[in-house]
Amino acid sequence: MKRFLFGSTPLYSNLLLASSSLFTTARTFTSGSTASFVTTSSPSLTGRTITRGNLHSSLTATVRNNNAVGASLLYPTNTRTMFSFEFQKKLPFTLTGPPIRDLCSPGKCQFGSEPQSVPLLEKFPVSSTSAVLRFGLPNEQQPLNLSTCACILAQAEINGETVVRPYTPISTNAQTGSFDLLIKNYGEHGTMSPYIHNLKIGDRIAFKHIDGNVKIQAEQFDDTDRILMLVGGTGITPMIQALHAILGQNKNEAKTKKHVTMFYGSRNSQDILGQELLDQWASDHKDQFSLHHVLSEEPDDSNWTGLRGMISKEVILQYFEKNADKDGHGDKNAVRVFVCGPPPLYKALSGPRDEKDQMSGVLKELGYTAEQVYKF
Predict the structure, then answer these.
(1) What is the mean predicted confidence (pLDDT) over 255-278?
(2) Parallel/antiparallel/unpaired status of strands 81-88 and 44-51
(3) Does residue 41 surpass a pLDDT of 60?
(4) In the prediction, which pLDDT does 4 show?
(5) 3-state secondary structure the chain
(6) How do beta strands 226-232 and 130-136 pair?
(7) CB-based burial label for 223 (10 Å; 0-12, 13-18, 19+)
(8) What is the pLDDT of residues 150-197, one digit of tens each?
(9) Rounded to the nearest 5 degrees, what angle is found at the Cα of 121, between the Cα atoms of 118 and 127?
(10) pLDDT (tens digit, 9 = 90+) per residue, 197-222?
(11) Which residues pair with residue 182 across a beta bridge?
(12) Measured between alpha carbons, how far is 167 from 355 in angstroms, rounded to an integer?
């Protein structure tokens, strides 16, 4: 929630805040009134004018993209007024709801080895570079039926070439008729991400799912007491799926007693994908989930009080292994480690992603074995 408060001067006042390129909607508020609205793919805005004396004025506010508002206030001479409004992102349930354990075994995904075209249904801006995109499914009466942590492949013809990229949905099999992808737009440094961000509602794109997209299943870590997640950037999406399986309540299953510690590396505090969801889960499931954000490029003069730098041996020792020893869970052999992120993260922590049976880097120095580490 962002709250803006302005003091104005007599005559005509034009106000512009955090300029952005995308207009989504506009609404006029009359003096002394309160109004709110929500539109598809835009935030919600609540506005109120607070008047002094006999004032007849109107406030026109325009929501732009995700974090920008333009407003103009027109009122008679020799009067003063204060007005304020609150600005809140409209986020999908998949970034605000509780964890849901709704498992499906491999081989049942609606998408098969042949690409199938589906429409973009909704788009939810999350930050200046990321959004949740909701796509339809071939069978609108069924869920995606994707197994735990598995990904699907987006396929499109871009500049005369067939481009294929993997994405792990953040939605679960409890969602019928659609699925959600949390995607960062890498702009000129990306190919698929700007293409998919530029899709309009109703535009179609193809997806497929092959055997190689199946990852570790929930049953394979259900009997693990302690899980260490080392994550960077967009590598968070498979971990969200794993957390759904671990933290989600199922009335027919006993509550798991395992504990997850996550170190999540991002560039800065404005670049943390899924932060709202993860922070809420860490608050709601303190006994099962410990979350440590690690920012590598956060400005020195910001008010960030969390960890800075990189996910390192020292960070893991201080915030994971020492706490485990203190709580009586210090048996390193009982730990399962998940690593997911960009190539430099693998190189530093576990060794290259495609070297599944080999270990190097920080985890090897700490004594973890290849059998304990799963490289997504």
Answers:
(1) 91
(2) antiparallel
(3) no
(4) 35
(5) CEEEEEECCCCEEEEEECCCCCEEEEEEEECCCEEEEECCCCCEEEEEEEECCCCCCEEEEEEECCCEEEEEEECCCCCCEEEEEEEECCCCHHHCCCCCCCCCCCCCCCCCCCCEEEEEEEEEECCCCEEEEEEECCCCCCECCCCCCCCEEEEEEECCEEEEEEECCCCCCCCECEEEEEEECCHHHCCHHHHHHCCCCCCEEEEECCHHHCCCCHHHHCCCCEEEEEEEHHHHHHHHHHHHHHHCCCCCCCCCCCEEEEEEEECCCCCCCCHHHHHHHHHHCCCCEEEEEEECCCCCCCCCCCEECCCCHHHHHHHHHHHHHHCCCCCHHHEEEEEECCHHHHHHHCCCCCCCCCCCHHHHHCCCCCCCEEEC
(6) unpaired
(7) exposed
(8) 999 999 999 999 999 999 999 999 999 999 999 999 999 999 999 999
(9) 120
(10) 999 999 999 999 999 999 999 989 88
(11) 132
(12) 21
The reported pTM is 0.77
Q: How many residues does this entry show for the chain?
A: 376
- Both tokens of 218, joined, read 């929930």
Q: For residues 16 and 44, what is the distance between their CA atoms, to the nearest angstrom?
A: 18
What's the pLDDT score for residue 319?
Answer: 92
